[in-house]
Every structure is written in C-alpha cells, then in structure tokens.
Automatic annotation (TrEMBL):
<protein>
    <recommendedName>
        <fullName>GlyGly-CTERM sorting domain-containing protein</fullName>
    </recommendedName>
</protein>
<feature type="signal peptide">
    <location>
        <begin position="1"/>
        <end position="24"/>
    </location>
</feature>
<feature type="region of interest" description="Disordered">
    <location>
        <begin position="382"/>
        <end position="404"/>
    </location>
</feature>
<keyword id="KW-0732">Signal</keyword>
C-alpha cells in the first residue's frame, strides 16, 4: 500500500469556466479595432482551486516593464459591471457549471440527463471490474504556521485493467471532512489512457485548498469512468484505501504566514476581443474584478497585473490606478484592459492579480488559480494576429494532473458526440 507522506501540499477545484457571447455594444471597450464578437469567462472565488505552478514569489518593479521587447497598451478604470448578477445569470445556463456539487447531485443529474450508454461492450462481457483503481497515495504540502495542518495535497492513483488491452478513462475526485455526510466534487481529470496493469500510467492531481476548509481531518474519494459511458466503473474511498483518510488539512486562509487580510478579490471576469486571423487567439482583453473588504471602512487599493505561459515564471505587466473599495458593494468593480502589440506569441496565458493597500504597500490578496477565468486565456499580439499562427497547445490540465494519453477537459463535454471507436484503434 502506498503511504501518506507529509512534506509540503495542495487541493484541486471544481473549475467554473464560462464561455459565452455578450452584446456587441461592448465592442469599443478595449480599442478601435475591437471585434464585435466577445468571448467571456466569469468565475467566483473557488473553494477549491487547481494550480500548475504555485511559485508566485515574483517581485513587481512598479512602473517598469520586465522585458522591453514586449510592447503593449494598458488602461484601467472603474467598471459598470455587476459581477454577482452576471455570474448568477451564467450559472443558470448549465447545472454542470455550478460549483461545489455533491457526489449525490452529480450522480442524479447524470442519470437524468446523460444520453450515453451505461456500460461498454467489454464491461458487459467481462463485468464492471474490467477497470479498477489499483492503489492510491496522498502527499501533503505547505504547513506554513507549523500547526500540523497542510494547505496543499497531491493525489496519485493507478488505474488497471483485468486483461491486456488499452482503455480511455477519466476520474472525478471528491473531498469531505471526516464526519460529514456529503462528498464535495473538487476536480475532474482529463481523459487519459491506461494499459493492462502497467504502473507507468499512474495519474496525479495536485491541488491547493483556497477557502472553505477549516482545520481538521479530511478524506478523499475517487470515482472512475470509462470514456464514452456514463456508469461509474470503480470507486476508491477511505474504506478501501486508508491512504485516502485522516488527512490533516486547512485552507490557506488559516495559515498564519503569507497573504491574509480582510480585503480580497471575490469575482473575476475575463473578456477577449479581436481575432483577425480566426485562429482562436485574441490580442485584446479586459479583466474585470470585484474587490471586497470586511466591515464598513473604505479602502484605497491598486492592483499589480501579471501574466505567464505554461506554468512558467510570472511577468509583471502593469499597475492599475488607485481605486476605492466599499465593503461588500457590487458597484465598485474595476477593470484592466490590454492591447498586445508585439512580443507575445500565440499561447494560453494565465493572469495574476496582486491587490496592494495604496497607503501602506501591504499585499492584501494575491490570486490566480482561485479563478478559472484567469487561466488558459488564448492570446497573441497584433503582429501574430495578422498572419497564420503556430501556437503551442494548451497544457493538458491546469491541475498538475498527469498521466498517459491526456485528452483535455473539453473532451468530457463532447462525450455524447464522439469517442466510441478510438479505443479500439490503439493496439
């Protein structure tokens, strides 16, 4: 049995990624060449969140560009967006995009709405145990205050087949505090390939606990699915593998060191504009965010804005003007707009927002993976947007999930449309 190793830690998220069109009346928001079509992603701060690279120790040189070879134009201003209402409107569109579903809710929805066959022919012939989770291990990380509770975790698991063949599978991961009745979904893996009982196709999911997890002992459960079919083919939980239980965890807000304050980013919306060459990569964007502060006192803040690609180092881009935050008001949203000219190849970019107290210089909040709308934004500069681009592919998972043959989260959305033949062509 693989052992639980306490060292440094992380929790993955129910990713809320909203892609939808908005009215063309917003088209002048960024620049004169803005396309009438706008793509939008909006998310509330996630209780659990997924990260690829948690190294956010970049020091911002205020007002100075990190790399002079990059040319861009930025503006910042107060926004008229009501992000709370926009988020609620989006969430009503699709049950699957509502965060923090319980395992029972997901099962009920799947049974009522899935048009997929329940079992594959191989499952019907060989039995449901033709695929199974052989073993799992959990590694814990990041106990900054030394109280024995960790704020990050990594779940490793090995899926095997009962006979020599290839299969495409994916898994849903759930977490709960010991003693709670309901399991809460926090991550769905990419589709990945396994072969027989080989250990080389082990899959890992690395996660940071962000908010909503008070100190305590937690446990993890894994549901396994065969790609293209709706029934669970195997489940591994704390009663099956002791490595999945008695995990001393807490979210990062309970850590006594690091960024912690009563002022925080609550909602973020990212809009992207202008794709002249129709390659799916845009050159203009607006990031709108709502910063809240507890209590009745107002607070003057500004925001440092960063970008990175492929989990690399953060690059400082711009600093917003100073603006005032009014408690929990939804009318004080602010926005940073960018128009990239050169030095930004076509790629999937992550954004990071660092909220600074304008009077003291204190870092009040520092967010990126907490919001899916800040992750994997398809962008390029104006030079690349006028000719055929050759972008790097997106990372297979924003959760440090790794395993053989990852096919991407979007594949799961297409389960009802594709996928019954590919498994039989791999031998």
């Amino acid at each position: 049995m693989l052992k639980v190793i306490s060292k440094y830690s992380l929790v993955a998220s129910a990713v809320l990624l909203g892609i939808s069109g908005v009215e063309a009346s917003q088209e002048e928001k960024v620049g004169a060449e803005t396309s009438a079509e706008i793509t939008t992603a909006i998310a509330k701060r996630a209780k659990t969140t997924t990260v690829v690279n948690d190294n956010i120790a970049t020091v911002a040189l205020k007002g100075d560009a990190v790399l002079p070879v990059r040319t861009s134009h930025y503006t910042s201003q107060k926004s008229d967006s009501d992000l709370e209402q926009e988020l609620k409107a989006y969430q009503t569109l699709d049950f699957k995009n509502q965060p923090n579903q319980t395992r029972a809710e997901m099962k009920k929805y799947r049974e009522a709405n899935s048009k997929l066959p329940k079992l594959s022919a191989k499952a019907q012939e060989k039995g449901a145990n033709h695929l199974y989770i052989h073993d799992a291990a959990v590694l814990l990380f990041d106990d900054e205050d030394g109280d024995g509770n960790y704020s990050k975790l990594r779940v490793d698991f090995d899926v095997d087949a009962s006979y020599d063949d290839y299969f495409d599978v994916y898994a849903e991961l759930f977490i709960r505090r010991i003693g709670d009745a309901q399991w809460t979904h926090y991550y769905t893996t990419d589709v990945f390939e396994i072969h027989y009982d080989y250990s080389s196709d082990e899959y890992s999911v690395t996660t940071r606990l962000n908010t909503g997890f008070p100190p305590g002992n937690y446990e993890v459960l894994i549901d396994l699915f065969e790609y293209g079919y709706s029934d669970i083919v195997d489940t591994l939980g704390p009663f099956d593998d002791y490595d999945l239980t008695n995990l001393p965890l807490e979210d990062k807000t309970y850590e006594s060191s690091g960024v912690s304050s009563n002022t925080y980013v609550d909602n973020v919306k990212t809009e992207i504009f202008t794709d002249a060459d129709d390659d799916g990569f845009y050159r203009e964007f607006t990031v709108t965010f709502d910063v809240d502060t507890e209590g009745s006192a107002d607070r003057d803040v500004y925001v440092n804005f960063y970008q990175r690609t492929n989990g690399g180092s953060w690059q400082f881009e711009t600093e917003s003007d100073v603006f005032t935050v009014y408690g929990y008001s939804s009318e004080d949203a602010y926005e940073i707009s960018g128009n990239w000219q050169s030095g930004y190849p076509a790629n999937y970019y992550d954004f990071r927002l660092e909220v600074i107290d304008a009077n003291t210089g204190e870092v009040l909040d520092d967010v990126s993976p907490e919001f899916s709308s800040l992750l994997q934004v398809p962008l390029e500069d104006a030079n690349n947007d006028t000719r055929q681009s050759n972008p790097n592919p997106p990372s297979s998972t924003t959760s440090s999930g790794s395993g053989g043959g990852s096919a991407g989260l979007l594949t799961l959305i297409a389960l009802a449309l594709a996928g019954f033949g590919r498994r039989f062509l791999k031998r």
